[in-house]
Structure formats: C-alpha cells, structure tokens
Amino acid sequence: MSGVRHYLLPGAWGYIYFSYFNSPAARLLPKGLGKDPAGGPRLRHILMADSLFSLVKAAPEDPILGVGQQFKADTRPQKVNLSVGMYQTEEGKIPVLKVVREAETRLFNSEIPHAYGPISGNPALPAFIQELLFGKDSEVIRSKRACTVQSLGGTGALKLAADLLHVVVGKTKAATSVPTWGNHNTIFSQAGYELAHYQYYDKAQGAIPFEHMLDDLRALDTGTVVILHACCHNPTGLDFSAEQWGEVLKVVIDRGLVPVLDIAYQGFNQGLDEDAAAIRLFAKAGISFLVSSSFSKNFSLYGERIGGLTVVTQSEEEAKRILSQVKQMARANYSNPPNYGGNLVAIVAGDPALRAEWKEEVTAMRKRIREMRFALVKAMEEAGTPRDFSFVTRQNGMFSFTGFTPDQIERLKKEYAIYAVGNGRICIAGINNHNVEYVAKAFTAVQKN
Ligand code: LMR
Questions:
Q1: Which residue's alpha carbon is at the smallest distance from atom 2 of ligand 1?
Q2: What is the CATH number of the domain that holds 80?
C-alpha cells in the first residue's frame, strides 16, 4: 500500500514515473540505472520528490527573533538593535539585575541538585505571581479560586492556556488584536483555533479606534477566546484607559467571551501594581479568565524561559481540577519546567529586602525607557524630521509603533545597521544617549528620500 502511495502522491511526476516503470520501455534503461541498492528503481530519485520531507516548504524566518539573529551577524560597529523586546542598559547591554546576581550567588552556594522539579514548577512561585497579578489582599487569593503553574516564559503560558481551553474545555475560536504580537496568532492557530480579530490601531489617528474595536468584540461568537494585552500593548504601545477597560469588560461579560490577559511587560508602564489594574478589574468582576505572565522582562531573565499561567476559576475546588489538567498539559509537552529561572525568582520572592530592591530595579528600567522616548523625540526634531514624532511619548512599555513602512525598515537595516521589526515596531529600550542622535538622523533620512 505504501508503495502505491509512493507512486501516486507527487502527482504528475508520480504518474509519469509509475507509467514508465511499469511499461516495457523500462527495460530500455541502461543496466543498473533502474535499480537502487535498496532494490527500488533509482531513477525515481531523479524524477520525483522522494523523502518524507521533500514536499515541506521552508517556514519564513521569525519576524522578531529572526531580526535579532541578523543583528548579531552584522559586523558594522555602529549597529543598533531595536528589534527584540529586551531591555538594554545605557551601555547597550542586557543587564543581569543585582537581585538576580545575588540570587545566583545564593543558589550556587546552596548546591541544590539538578533533580526534576514538580510539574507545576517551583512551589514558591504561584503565591508570588498571584500577589503580583491580583495584589496582596485580593479576594481571588483569599478564596483560592485561582491556580498558577510556572511556564516556559509568557509564550509557554499562552500555549498552555490555548491547549487547556481547546483540548479540555472545547473552545475552537480565538480573537487577537490587529496588530498584535505575531506569536499570538501562531500559538492559537497551531493549537487548533480558528482565528478572528479585533481592530486595535487607527493608522491615521495613531490611536486605538475604540468604538470600532468594541464593535469587533461584540461581533465575536459567544465563547470565543479573546487575547487582550493587559498593559504595554505589543506592538503599538497603546493601552486602554481605566474607563475603556471597564467597557471592554462589559462586552466580554455580555458576549460570553473567554479572556486571556497577556501581561508580559508588568512594571514597564506605570509600575508593578498599576500595570496589573486590568487584571484586578477582571478579578473583581468575579468572572473566570486566564493570565499569562512573564519574568523575562521585569527580571531580565529572557533566556531562562520563566513565567506563569494563572487560571482564575469560580471556586477552590474548580481551581484544583483545572490545575490537575494544566499539569497534564505541561507533562505531555515538556514534563516539568527548568529549575534555574524559577529558583532565582523564588529566592527574590522569599526575601523582603531583595523584593524591595527588585522593585527599584524595575523602576530604573522603566524610567530609562521613558527618558529615551523624550530623548528620541527631541533628537528627531533636531534632525529635522518631516513628521511629528511626539506620539512616541504617548506610547507605553518597551515599544513604539513608528509607522515606518517595510521599505523604510529595510533601508534602516541596509544603510544604517539599525534593526527593527518589519511592521514598524521599534524597541525604545535599545536607544541610549550614545546612539539616539545617530538613530534620529537615520530615521529622518529614510523618511525624506
Ligand atoms: C518581542 O515581542 O520582541 C518579545 O516578546 C520577544 C518575542 O518572543 O517575540
């Protein structure tokens, strides 16, 4: 049977080949050419696709991480990386936070063996994550109606959420903002969802088209999983006001949507507590929802893949059942999360002095990014930008959605060694006082010619 499939699958070539090798003309082939060492006809390797993967097309390079790799390979000394969402210091370095260094020292001295950890991750993390998300005195924490597992960064949490809602709960539709972080679409479509979208950006206004967006949410089928950016929207840097969140929540409840709140940048807009306002609002409403959170950015632990999935349910008993299901998802995917990042965060979480220091370090990162927003706008004015760039100071988090076209982004790379994402997103955290003038001149030049 597999032999027959082998002949027929590749279409026309298969047909020609099949007809030829089963005809008397096959005898005309030079001796040996018609047979391969395994006994099959050798010519098939010439005539038709033959391996398991020969019909598989290459996937496109990742639009964000792929640019980061191109930056690495660039040897020009003036190069600037404004692509991947990683905080960089004034010296252009990815920092190791002081609290992380201290935690690493303690971990090193403790000689903890590299044993398997629990499927749900470091046992100290759920309480810490829930406190960050809901606030210390939250009803959600008191009632124990939420469960949390350590995940492989925010991405891993989203994948667990997608699997839980699809495989266990039976959800089939998911809606993402336009634009969004591209991986939202990939994660949910690969997890088996049919994708829908809600408009999030009005190019002409450089703002959220709020009424239009609400209409898009209202038009979603009941039960659709809706992915919302809790703060520091990626890529636009535009967030809902408190009132707007109230209206979004109302539509979510009225339409019976299933919210997944993605909070990868907690601490990078107003502060750790302030940035969780949307999550606290949803918690107060008493609804069930999911939160993917990350320590990549606010602990600068990008490569350690450390984050959490939190599922807010209706009761402690329900949370326990859901936890058991999430653990099964994790077990089937990667068994249990790596220990290292979880151990580091747990050490900081367990020491009030380190916690306080961590908050200060997050504040310092946030402040530097904000300063760079103003520095960029000033430098753009000085460089003679043909377009007002003050919108940069009205956007939040690490990113600015510049409105640069793919061509302009390509020119920035080719002519100036400045790397940004093709959709026009730049990472403000890659700008510093040493490169801001250079960046502004390049930004101005690609707009003029
Ligand atoms: C980003 O958007 O640049 C980050 O979240 C990194 C990533 O995984 O894409």
A1: 85
A2: 3.90.1150.10
User: Domain residues for 33?
Assistant: 2-47
CB 243 within 8 A of CB 233: no
Quote the CA–CA distance of 1 and 429 in Å, as a whole number: 58
**Statement to judge: residues 259 and 152 lie in one domain:** yes
Whether residues 196 and 273 fall in one domain: yes
Same structural domain, 188 and 157: yes
Task: Enumerate residues lining ligand 1, CB below 6 A.
Answer: 64-65, 84-85, 181, 183, 234, 264
- Stretch among 25-29, 165-169, 185-189 having the lowest mean pLDDT: 25-29
pLDDT one-digit tens code per residue, 391-441: 999 999 999 999 999 999 999 999 999 999 999 999 999 999 999 999 999
Same domain? For 126 and 179 the reply is yes
| Integer-rounded Cα radius of gyration of the chain | 26
CA distance 246 to 36: 70
> How far is the C-alpha of 236 from the C-alpha of 345, rounded, in Å?
29
Report CA(12)–ligand 1 centroid distance (Å). 43
In a domain, 165, yes or no: yes
Query: Looking at residue 449, what is its pLDDT?
Result: 75
pLDDT digits (tens, 9 = 90+) for 338-383: 999 999 999 999 999 999 999 999 999 999 999 999 999 999 999 9
272 shares a domain with 140: yes
